[in-house]
C-alpha cells in the first residue's frame, strides 16, 4: 500500500509541479509573484472544456487551441500591465495581480456562470495494472505529458539563445542588461512561456477536476508552496517541489488524516521560507 | 576603545574576514585601505553586529558587545555610515536625521533641535524639507553622516564617505571630520581617497584578502612594499 | 484640545452619530455598520501593512481568532463578548508577535506568502477542530439582545458602537503616527537595515506593531460575529477577507490614518449598492473592486488620499498638504 501511495503521490505531484512551473518561471525572471496565476489556470481549463464541449476536441489536443490563446493573453498582460510595475514595490506588484485575478474570475462568473463543468473522457475511470500497483489511465497520461513538457522546456532554456537569455535575466537583471540582453523583451517572452505552461497544465487538470470561476484558488496556494520549495525560476525545482508536496500530501492523508493533510503544504512553505528561502534548487540568496 | 579579537566572517565557503585582531584608540582617526573585496565593509558589519556569521570577540569600552544586536550597539555609541547611502526615502532630510537623534532623546521636539544643530554643522540646513530623492551623491553622503552623528556616537565608522565626491567636497569633508574629532569622537574610516587618508589619519591599516597586511602612520604604510604591491601601485598620488 | 486635526475627527464623529440617530432605513444603517467595520479592520491592517511595512495577507487569521474566541466563550460559558473580545485580541496579539518574530528576516513577497500560509492553516484548523469550532457547519449565536451580550435589536446601536471603535482606533493611529514610534515605523518600512544601525529597535517594533494590528483585527472579528450572529470558516478565514483589508487600505492610501477610512467609505457602499441594485449579475461588485484596485496601483500608487488632498489643495490654495507627505508611501522608490 505504501508503494501505491508513493506512486499516486508522484503522479499528483508531477501535475502540481507542471501547474506551478509557469508561476516559477515568471517569479524567477520578472521577480513578481503572480497572484492571478490561479485565474490563468481557470481560463486555460475553460478553453479546454469548451473545445471539448463545442468542438469535440480531446483535452490533450485542446492545447493546440489553448496554447496560442494563452500565449497572446500572456503577452498582452505583460506588455500592458506587468511591464508598468516591474520596478515598483512588492506591494504594488502583489496587488496589481490580485486585482487582475479578481477581474478575471468575476468576468468568468458573469459571462460563463458559477456552474461546475467537467470533461468526460472514456479512460478517466480505467486503470492499468502493474503487478500489485493500480495506475489510473488518466493520471498515467498526464504524467507522460508532464514529463515530456518538462524535458522540452528545460532543453529550450538550456540550449537555445533565448533560453540562455531568460536564465541570465533570472540570475541578474542588471548584468544581463549590460551584456546586451533586451530584458524588456525577455520579460514578455518569459511571461508568455509561463502562460504556455499554464495552458498545458490546465488542459491536463481539466481531465481530473471540474472547472468553475474560483477553481484557481484551489491550485494557486499549492503553486506558491511548490515555487518556494523548488526555488524561484527553477523548472527541475518546480517538478521536484511538486512531487515532494504531492507525496507528502497523499501519505499524510493516508496515515494521518484526510482533513489535516492540507495543512502540510503550508507547514512546508513556512519551514522552507525560514530555513532555506532560496529553495532546494535556488541559487539566489 | 574598540577591541577586535580574532574576528572572522565566513560566507558559505568564502572567508571574507580572517581572524582579524586590532584596537581603535580613544579619539584617534584610524584609516583602513585595501583593494575591493578585501573584506573592509564586512569587518565594519561585524563590528556593528550586522554580519550574521561573524565569530570572534568585539569589545567596546572594555565591555564585550559580541552578543548584542546592531541597534543596541548603536545605543552604546557605535555609529556608522553605509558605502551606498541607505536613506529613508519617504522621510525628509530633517526627519532622516531625527530618526538618529530619537535613539538618544525621548521626544520629537528635542530630536528636531538636535537635527537643526547637525544640519547647521554640516551645512545642509537649507535641504531640511527636501526628500532624499532630489539630493546629489555628495549631499546623500552628507546626510548619511548627519544621521550617524545624530545618534551621538563615541565611535564613528565611516565607509567610503568621500567616494564619488568632487575635489572641493573632499576638502570640505576633511575639514568637517577634523571638527568632529575635536568634539571627542573617535573615527574609524574606510577610504580610497588617499590624500584624505594622509591628511586625516593618525594611523592607517591595510586590509587584503580578509587579513591585515600592514599598520602604521600613513607615511609608513605608503612606503610598505607589500602594500604597494597589493593595492597602491601608484604611491606617488599620495 | 489644542490639536486641530483631533478636533476635526471628533467633530466628524459627532455629526455622524447624530446623523445615525435620524436614519431609520435598515439598508442605510447596514451600510454604515459594514463601512465602519471595514474601516476599522483596514485601519488595523494598516498599522502592520502600511506603517511598519509588514505586508500581511494573513490577517483573516486574526479576524477569525477574534470571532471564534468570543463566540465560543459566549456560547459555551456565557461569558460576555465584551470580555471575550479582549481575550481574543490578546490571543491574536500573542500569535502575531510570535509569528512576526519568526518571520523577521522575510521581506516583501516572502513575508506576504508566509502570512498567507498562516491564514490558510487557521482556516484548515477551524474546519477540522469540529469539537471546538463545529467545523464547516459554523456557530449560531443565539439572539438574546442585551448590552452585556453585545447583541442589539436595532442596527443603529451597532452603528454607534462601531463608529466609536473607529474613532478610538483612528485617534490611536494618529497619535502613534505623530509620536516617535511613527517615525521609527516609517524608518523600518523604508530601510530596516539603516534604521537598526541608527539604534531603532527593529525587531521589537515590528513584533509590537504586528501584535497591535492583530489585536484590533481580532476585535473587528468579534464585532462581526456579534453583528451577523453566525460564523463559519468560509466567511471568516478566507484569503479574500485578508485581501479585502489590504485593498481598502491601499485604495485609500497606506501609511496614513485617513487612508483606510477613505478606502472603506468609497468601496463598501459601492459594492453594497452594486449587489443590491444590480443583483441579477453576481460578481459585478468584485469585478469593480478588481478594476479599481488595478487602476489605483497603476495610476495612483500612493492611493486616493494624496490625490484628493492635492485637488483640495489646488482648489483652496491652502497648504493642506504641508504636514501630510510624511505619510505617503513612495511606491516608485527604488532601493
UniProtKB/TrEMBL annotation, chain A:
Protein topology in the membrane: Multi-pass membrane protein
Keyword ATP-binding: no
First-listed, main subcellular location of the protein, grouped into a coarse class: membrane
GO biological process: amino acid transport
Matching Pfam families: BPD_transp_2
GO molecular function: transmembrane transporter activity
Bilayer-crossing regions: 6-33, 40-57, 63-82, 94-118, 138-157, 185-209, 215-232, 239-257, 263-281
Location relative to the cell: Cell membrane
Keywords carried by this UniProt record: Amino-acid transport, Cell membrane, Membrane, Transmembrane, Transmembrane helix, Transport
Entry-linked InterPro entries: ABC_transp_permease, BCAA_transport_permease
Entry GO terms, CC: plasma membrane
Homology family: Belongs to the binding-protein-dependent transport system permease family. LivHM subfamily.
Name recorded for this polypeptide: Branched-chain amino acid transport system permease protein LivH
UniProtKB/TrEMBL annotation, chain B:
Signal sequence range: none
A molecular-function term among this protein's GO annotations: ATP hydrolysis activity
Positions of the ABC transporter domain: 2-234
KW ATP-binding (keyword) present: yes
GO CC annotation, single: plasma membrane
Domain of life: Bacteria
Pfam families: ABC_tran, BCA_ABC_TP_C
UniProtKB keywords: ATP-binding, Nucleotide-binding, Transport
Keyword ATP-binding annotated: yes
Name of the protein in its database record: Branched-chain amino acid transport ATP-binding protein LivG
Organism name: Desulfocucumis palustris
TrEMBL record, chain C:
Key words of the record: Cell membrane, Membrane, Transmembrane, Transmembrane helix
Membrane topology: Multi-pass membrane protein
GO cellular component, one term: plasma membrane
Record keyword Chaperone present: no
Chain segments annotated as coiled-coil in the UniProt record: none
Main location (coarse class): membrane
Pfam name, any one: BPD_transp_2
Subcellular location(s) of the protein: Cell membrane
Transmembrane segments: 7-25, 79-98, 110-129, 157-176, 210-230, 287-309
Keyword check for Metal-binding: no
GO molecular function terms noted in the UniProt entry: branched-chain amino acid transmembrane transporter activity
Name of the molecule in the record: Branched-chain amino acid transport system permease protein LivM
Protein source organism: Desulfocucumis palustris
Amino acid at each position: 500500500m505504501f508503494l501505491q501511495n508513493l506512486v499516486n503521490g508522484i503522479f499528483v505531484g508531477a501535475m502540481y509541479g507542471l501547474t506551478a512551473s509557469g508561476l516559477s518561471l515568471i517569479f524567477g525572471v520578472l521577480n513578481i509573484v503572480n497572484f492571478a496565476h490561479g485565474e490563468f489556470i481557470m481560463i486555460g481549463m475553460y478553453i479546454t472544456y469548451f473545445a471539448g464541449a463545442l468542438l469535440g476536441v480531446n483535452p490533450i489536443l485542446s492545447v493546440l487551441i489553448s496554447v496560442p490563446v494563452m500565449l497572446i493573453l500572456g503577452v498582452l498582460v505583460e506588455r500592458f500591465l506587468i511591464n508598468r510595475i516591474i520596478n515598483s514595490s512588492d506591494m504594488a506588484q502583489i496587488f496589481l495581480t490580485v486585482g487582475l485575478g479578481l477581474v478575471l474570475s468575476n468576468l468568468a462568473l458573469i459571462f460563463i456562470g458559477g456552474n461546475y463543468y467537467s470533461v468526460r473522457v472514456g479512460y478517466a475511470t480505467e486503470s492499468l495494472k502493474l503487478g500489485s500497483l493500480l495506475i489510473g489511465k488518466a493520471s498515467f497520461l498526464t504524467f507522460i505529458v508532464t514529463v515530456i513538457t518538462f524535458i522540452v522546456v528545460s532543453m529550450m532554456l538550456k540550449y537555445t539563445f533565448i533560453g540562455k537569455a531568460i536564465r541570465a535575466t533570472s540570475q541578474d537583471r542588471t548584468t544581463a542588461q549590460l551584456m546586451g540582453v533586451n530584458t524588456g523583451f525577455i520579460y514578455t517572452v518569459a511571461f508568455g512561456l509561463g502562460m504556455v505552461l499554464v495552458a498545458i497544465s490546465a488542459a491536463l487538470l481539466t481531465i481530473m477536476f471540474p472547472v468553475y470561476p474560483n477553481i484557481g484558488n484551489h491550485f494557486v496556494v499549492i503553486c506558491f508552496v511548490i515555487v518556494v520549495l523548488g526555488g524561484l525560476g527553477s523548472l527541475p525545482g518546480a517538478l521536484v517541489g511538486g512531487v515532494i508536496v504531492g507525496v507528502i500530501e497523499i501519505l499524510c492523508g493516508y496515515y494521518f488524516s484526510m482533513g489535516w493533510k492540507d495543512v502540510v503544504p503550508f507547514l512546508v512553505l513556512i519551514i522552507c521560507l525560514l530555513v532555506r528561502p532560496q529553495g532546494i534548487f535556488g541559487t539566489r540568496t | 576603545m574598540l577591541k577586535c579579537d580574532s574576528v572572522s566572517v565566513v560566507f558559505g565557503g568564502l572567508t571574507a574576514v580572517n581572524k582579524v585582531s586590532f584596537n581603535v584608540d580613544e579619539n584617534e582617526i584610524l584609516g583602513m585601505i585595501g583593494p575591493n573585496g578585501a573584506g573592509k565593509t564586512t569587518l565594519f558589519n561585524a563590528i556593528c553586529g550586522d554580519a550574521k556569521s561573524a565569530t570572534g570577540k568585539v569589545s567596546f569600552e572594555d565591555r564585550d558587545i559580541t552578543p548584542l544586536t546592531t541597534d543596541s550597539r548603536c545605543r552604546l555609541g557605535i555609529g556608522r555610515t553605509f558605502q551606498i547611502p541607505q536613506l529613508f526615502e519617504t522621510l525628509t532630510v530633517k526627519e532622516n536625521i531625527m530618526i538618529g537623534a530619537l535613539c538618544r532623546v525621548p521626544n520629537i521636539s528635542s530630536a528636531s533641535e538636535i537635527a537643526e544643530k547637525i544640519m547647521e554643522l554640516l551645512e545642509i540646513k537649507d535641504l531640511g524639507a527636501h526628500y532624499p530623492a532630489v539630493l546629489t551623491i555628495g549631499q546623500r553622503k552628507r546626510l548619511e553622516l548627519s544621521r550617524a552623528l545624530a545618534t551621538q556616537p563615541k565611535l564613528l565608522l565611516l565607509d567610503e564617505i568621500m567616494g564619488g565626491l568632487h575635489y572641493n567636497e573632499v576638502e570640505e569633508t576633511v575639514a568637517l571630520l577634523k571638527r568632529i574629532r575635536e568634539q571627542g569622537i573617535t573615527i574609524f574610516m574606510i577610504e580610497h581617497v588617499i590624500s584624505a587618508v594622509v591628511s586625516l589619519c593618525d594611523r592607517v591599516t591595510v586590509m587584503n584578502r580578509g587579513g591585515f597586511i600592514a599598520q602604521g602612520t600613513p607615511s609608513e604604510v605608503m612606503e610598505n612594499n607589500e602594500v604597494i604591491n597589493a593595492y597602491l601601485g601608484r604611491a606617488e598620488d599620495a | 484640545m489644542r490639536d486641530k486635526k483631533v478636533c476635526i475627527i471628533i467633530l466628524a464623529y459627532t455629526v455622524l452619530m447624530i446623523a445615525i440617530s435620524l436614519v431609520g432605513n435598515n439598508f442605510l444603517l447596514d451600510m454604515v455598520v459594514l463601512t465602519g467595520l471595514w474601516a476599522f479592520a483596514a485601519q488595523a491592517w494598516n498599522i502592520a501593512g502600511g506603517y511598519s511595512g509588514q505586508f500581511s495577507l494573513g490577517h483573516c487569521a486574526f479576524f477569525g481568532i477574534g470571532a471564534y474566541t468570543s463566540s465560543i466563550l459566549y456560547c459555551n460559558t456565557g461569558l460576555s463578548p465584551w470580555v471575550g473580545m479582549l481575550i481574543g485580541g490578546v490571543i491574536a496579539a500573542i500569535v502575531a508577535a510570535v509569528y512576526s518574530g519568526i518571520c523577521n528576516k522575510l521581506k516583501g513577497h516572502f513575508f506576504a506568502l508566509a502570512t498567507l500560509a498562516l491564514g490558510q492553516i487557521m482556516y484548515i484548523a477551524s474546519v477540522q477542530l469540529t469539537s471546538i469550532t463545529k467545523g464547516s457547519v459554523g456557530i449560531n449565536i443565539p439572539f438574546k439582545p442585551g448590552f452585556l451580550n453585545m447583541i442589539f435589536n436595532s442596527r443603529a446601536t451597532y452603528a454607534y458602537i462601531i463608529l466609536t471603535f473607529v474613532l478610538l482606533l483612528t485617534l490611536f493611529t494618529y497619535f502613534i503616527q505623530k509620536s516617535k514610534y511613527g517615525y521609527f515605523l516609517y524608518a523600518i518600512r523604508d530601510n530596516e537595515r539603516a534604521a537598526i544601525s541608527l539604534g531603532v529597535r527593529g525587531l521589537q517594533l515590528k513584533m509590537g506593531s504586528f501584535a497591535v494590528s492583530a489585536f484590533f483585527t481580532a476585535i473587528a472579528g468579534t464585532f462581526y460575529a456579534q453583528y451577523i450572529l453566525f460564523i463559519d470558516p468560509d466567511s471568516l478565514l478566507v484569503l479574500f477577507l485578508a485581501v479585502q483589508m489590504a485593498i481598502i487600505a491601499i485604495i485609500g492610501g497606506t501609511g496614513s490614518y485617513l487612508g483606510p477610512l477613505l478606502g472603506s467609505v468609497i468601496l463598501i457602499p459601492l459594492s453594497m449598492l452594486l449587489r443590491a441594485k444590480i443583483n441579477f449579475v453576481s460578481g459585478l461588485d468584485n469585478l469593480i473592486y478588481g478594476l479599481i484596485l488595478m487602476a489605483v496601483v497603476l495610476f495612483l500608487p500612493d492611493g486616493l488620499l494624496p490625490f484628493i488632498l492635492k485637488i483640495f489643495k489646488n482648489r483652496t490654495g491652502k497648504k493642506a498638504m504641508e504636514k501630510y507627505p510624511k505619510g505617503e508611501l513612495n511606491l516608485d522608490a527604488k532601493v
